[in-house]
Amino acid sequence: MKTLTKISNTIMEKYLPDPYIFVTILTVLVLLLGVTLTDSSPLDMVTYWGDGFWGLLSFTMQMVIVLAAGHILANSPVFKKVLSTLASNIKTPSMAIIVVTFVSLIACWINWGFGLVIGALFAKEIARHVQKVDYRLLIASAYSGFVIWHGGLAGSVPLSIATEGHTFADIMGVVPTKVTLFSTYNLFIVIVIMLTLPFFNRWMMPKEKDVVEVDPSLLAEEKIALPPVENNFASRSERSYILTILIGAIGLGYLMHHFIMKGFVLDLNVVNTIFIVLGIIFHGTPQRFLAAAQDAIKTTTGIVFQFPFYAGIMGMMTASGLAAVFSGWFVNISNEHTFYLFTFFSAGLVNFFVPSGGGQWAVQAPIMLDAATKLGADYAKTAMAIAWGDAWTNMIQPFWALPALAIAGLKAKDIMGFCLFILFYTGIIISIGFLFF
Fold it and tell me: Whose CA is closest to 103, among 197, 177, 33, 17?
């Protein structure tokens, strides 16, 4: 394994481009595939791209808030203290890899934005305490927890179809999370990955002579600058705990009412509300919360300026029928037993071109739900197969690694050699879940 990961890392370092270059290459590739595999002309494909370019604005805003709110909460004094305490008890590189993977998995299961950030911050904190740990693998391990996100509490597909009036409600109805997130097959996948992935990552540790340690300058903690204290109403109100208590009480009151009236029902808006309210409370004063928010927004730059390109790709994939062509390849070789597995594989392929859970669901759901109807397959399990396919190939789709890489001070090519093997390993577990449960 050490030899294989070394070869993989060498290849990635030489050939994997920057994520922006990656999305531009994908744009050109999809245009050419659309012209080749469908009846669309080059002008048609360009038109589809332009029409779709702004098609994910509302979803982009939700994703920005998820990531920013997770970053704010992870940077609160309460969580920082917890991270520092945990990191100080880690003494060896092996333990560092195992613990950071497990923490990332738990955090990403709760909320993907929170998990991406908390994993990277924890990895940096561990690097301050543990010598001779490979920093690339440490950050790859922190990112690897992201593979579990769509089977967790913030999974956009299961939360979307659990919401009244969702786009495909006329086909599948409102699907409660007890038959998606808390189904037997999903719990099997989640639990097995949680219990084994930390040790798989530890297995990839390079030989001591090949270890790449962190540049100490990357570990320097930036202090969040606060405005100077002034003796006036504006300054006092910014430092007031009273406002935090009042807003916190309103937010918690709303959330309690929501869960009492609707049960444990989560959607993206509820998840965002939870993390914003907790972020406000844990930072203590409005001034500290706003400073943390300003710092958090920096991590969303890649999402803001690359999402339109992926929306354009999604526009081409959908309007040209290219997504239907891809999905059809897998549907045509499926039967009632293998349908979920091939749905998972097809979603993994489509995710390269549409790395958005909600966006991918919009693209693939019409094809896969129609196929599920003809085969008599379960709609909820079909949706989760798409969800897991979306999460799975994120391991080698550099877009979602951007926040963690920004925190760590690394490039995508630094970690993707390890992530390739994480993709293979988790793919086996997910496949077993959909074939035998």
Answer: 197
